[in-house]
Amino acid sequence: MDLVIGRFIEALRQAGLPISPAETLDALRASDLIGVDNRESLRAGLALVLAKTVDHKVTYEKLFDQFFQFTAPQEPGADEPETSSSENTDEQSSDSQSTESDQDQQGEGESEGDGPASGSGGGASSSLGQQLMADDQASLAIAMAEAGEAVGVRDMQVFTQKSRFSYQMMQQMGSEELNAELAELHQDESQQELYRELSQRRDILQQQVRDYVEQQFMLFAAEKGQQLRRENLQKVKLTNVDLAHYKQMSELVRKAAKQLASMHSRRRRITRRGLLDVRKTVAANAAFDGILFHTKWKSTKIDRPKVMVICDVSGSVSRVARFLLMFLYSLQDVMPRVRSFVFASRMGEVTDFFETMPMDEALAEVMAGWANQSTSYDQSLEDFQNLALKGVDNKTTVIMLGDARNNNGPGRADIWQDVYRRSQRVLWLNPERASSWNTGDSIMADYAPYCSRVETCNSLRDLNRIIGTILKYS
Question: pTM for this structure?
């Protein structure tokens, strides 16, 4: 029983319920006191220990029903050939032994000459065949669970592995021996009835094994698969993110921004407490004979950063720009002063879009107005000079997202140099690998001397790291 409860708790953890070792011990004690005879009492008792919130309660109820369900064995359909034991049942309807198992009835039928003398397996010689012909569902369920443990079905990560694990479980249960027996029976004309019956029962078992694997996946591996996908999406290039994954990627961006905001807010609260200023504290309490009625604290004031972000939204860079803007505007609690500019052939400020519209609508408007145009860094930087250069000061962090590909036109690096001299720091985020810089029409070398940092940024992991650095040192 302890092993069963332990596996159930493992399934709950995989589904996201935080269950501590102490709570696990409480659940084991509760199950010992309640027992397993009363399903509803066990459900209610474990819920008191393991489900802490309303959301946890919903997840718990769902998983309890999945984990402790029992699927009744499927019977052959009415339109399928009946077994030899069924044929003999009518002949023995008046027999006082009618309540005996199908195994015994089939043995009586075969002794009359319908087939070879059978043992406890109704004529089958293989171990699995005997279990199937005896219709021993309890034994089959135990064998199925043991086979699942042997092949590690709970380690399955993606649903496409279902067929492989089902096959391995059947092998573990003895399907090779059973298939060899079926091949022999198929060649024997006198054993065709047993062949059909055993084949039918094998097909039913295969379906039960597939159902078992699917159930184990839903209990233990579904969340692992989602976690694996989230980890892969954090590493994948933003320029390669398929539209089918856009929604999930957007959720990951918001979640990462929320975690970053929470961490930075906590750091700011701790910093505001400061350290005890011994000199000022002693001086303030000199009139009280050194008794510390008043304490003085050292503290460091952390100003929220003033950020200007400039995004190239032409071509493939537009996808990275979309996620960068989403990331920054998800940090409003710790980074409220963000001015946003986008450009392709011309530059425009889009700060008001994000202040007055929902995020998705604002991004759609931005992309519709500026994306998919030819790139002109020289004209765009001149536009920035007119729009915002006067607002850049020694408290401003300027973030440029672009590949510095200017279609062989002039770069106006002199304007970027002026931005660098006025600002606190300048970060250039290039979605291309460093080996691609300064190749073709890239003029990254013209801008790099006037940047505090130049980094490759083409994944959610890169965004999280770079924006985290801005918050940490602001």
Answer: 0.50
